């Protein structure tokens, strides 16, 4: 489901569940891993990465379809995952080895930085083409984390961004060939791992206070 | 005054009143047209365009000068126009065939996308040079819709942006020669017309909630 | 400590106290100068500039260390300085002749525009590397005044921006060689000096209302 390794000061959390959709089991595994990582003392940084063609495709729509009575509870748990990453007391880097769609794209946005694979894979918020909209927490995350023009285009057109397009749009900060995505993310994370975790968490929480308030608030408007 | 045509799935609303200033008659005609367009069922998108040298020069200062007792009521109606476009249940594109000044520039910003003519015409918010300031709704529209640096420069310097400058500043998304502005806008609109109107309206309203709240609130601070 | 001259319509306020840290004496001198400038009637604009290698290094940490009981009162006074510049009834330009660090960088952000020296000096918000965070007023100033991606990177990484990097990141609007920084800033200021001061102040205060509210509110969260 997941795999957590340490490479020097850098924790590498690999999602290893196909499309890496947020099934309850997947969420439980990632929550547990992040809770452990958050206890880190001293230098540290987190890299998350997927497997194969997928970083993450977000919400587990199959599970949701079979558990519609748990929709709000489920969304609260997804919000909790986003908040956990945003509140992690260390620098964070998403290594986008493949598709980051919908909730998977939003999870990537919760990281401080992102490195994206050049030859394959898209960043995409396709909700507008699925007849879906965004929860208050998701809406604020996208709006506060992305350049205005990018947030506007991403949610209103459902554009699929290649790595080069995502770099120009300010969605990711670096691009790399398939084999270099994880090493580049780890290198970036290692360069930031010396920063005081508590200070990073405080500055990040202040910067994204409205997002965190919404993520910790009601899941639906 | 105005002309409303349909080109495939795309409604083309042409303002045809010279400078296309927001006279009560102009507002009434546009309100009626938009109310009709909003009832569209199925695929649809809106393009607005002006005539000759002008997209729109905004507030009708002559009429306002002769009707100063109706200032606040008039501003509420202009706010209502902006909100109507921002809430339209379909993708929207402004075809900037010519000058988009002051309120005319803000009306352009209410659209999802804009295509601007390259050889002639400016986007300009000249209020700072007219001794005017912005209503709370206008201020938030400019601030939330434009990249930060562009909003700052536009309102504090009153800069006149050519099409190329407006593209670089994130005010418009495409530029075209005079004859190509409307076709390019229609082509863009047509490519988006298949999206579900209710979904577009919900996502857009969530994204611009503070703007819409201000536009629906008191016209003056 | 400081020197205030007038060059045509442009007030040139030079900080002349080494690193130009915000000692109580420095603050008193600048407050007095700005109070005088604010009384200007007719065309006017302000340029601020430092001396030698420094624009300003911000908070006077030595003085603070010896006066820890006055921490909150001191921060309120620094907030007051930021608000004074943001509320000045005329266009303002920071001539970054050298380092603009921490509070000195934030002071630069309070100006409408900035010109930065190319061969030497950095813009840097190093708080994350000092175990410090930002007050609510400082946090909002950085967040509302800079492009989103720049605010994010600046506070979470403590990156030192050269003039060229600061230009690309939207922190400054022009760059110039050492001898040309002040002349370029004065030229820019002079080109804007004809704008009505009251109008400029109103538009700017509306645009940065949340920042000003925070700067005038409690210094600590």
TrEMBL record, chains A, B, C:
Pfam families: ECH_1 (PF00378). GO terms for molecular function: delta(3)-delta(2)-enoyl-CoA isomerase activity. Gene3D superfamilies: 2-enoyl-CoA Hydratase, Chain A, domain 1. Keywords: Isomerase, Lipid metabolism. InterPro entries: ClpP/crotonase-like_dom_sf, Enoyl-CoA_hydra/iso. One of its GO terms (biological process) is fatty acid beta-oxidation. The keyword Coiled coil does not apply. This is Enoyl-CoA hydratase/isomerase family protein.
């Amino acid at each position: 489901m997941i795999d957590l390794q340490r490479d020097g000061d850098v924790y590498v959390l690999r999602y290893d569940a196909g499309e890496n959709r947020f099934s309850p089991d997947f969420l439980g595994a990632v929550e547990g891993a992040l809770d452990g990582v958050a206890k880190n003392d001293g230098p540290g940084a987190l890299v998350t990465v997927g497997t194969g063609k997928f970083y993450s495709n977000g919400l587990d729509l199959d599970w949701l379809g079979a558990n519609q009575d748990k929709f709000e509870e489920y969304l609260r748990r997804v919000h909790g995952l986003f908040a956990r990453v945003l509140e992690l007391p260390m620098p964070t880097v998403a290594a986008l080895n493949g598709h980051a769609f919908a909730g998977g794209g939003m999870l990537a946005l919760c990281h401080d930085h992102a490195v994206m694979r050049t030859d394959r894979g898209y960043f995409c918020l396709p909700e507008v083409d699925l007849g879906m909209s965004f929860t208050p927490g998701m809406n604020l995350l996208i709006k506060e984390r992305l350049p205005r023009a990018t947030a506007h285009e991403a949610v209103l057109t459902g554009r699929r961004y290649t790595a080069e397009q995502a770099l120009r749009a300010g969605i990711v900060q670096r691009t790399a060939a398939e084999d270099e995505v994880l090493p580049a993310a780890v290198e970036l994370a290692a360069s930031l791992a010396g920063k005081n975790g508590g200070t990073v968490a405080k500055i990040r929480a202040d910067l994204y206070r409205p997002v965190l308030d919404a993520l910790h608030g009601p899941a639906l408007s």
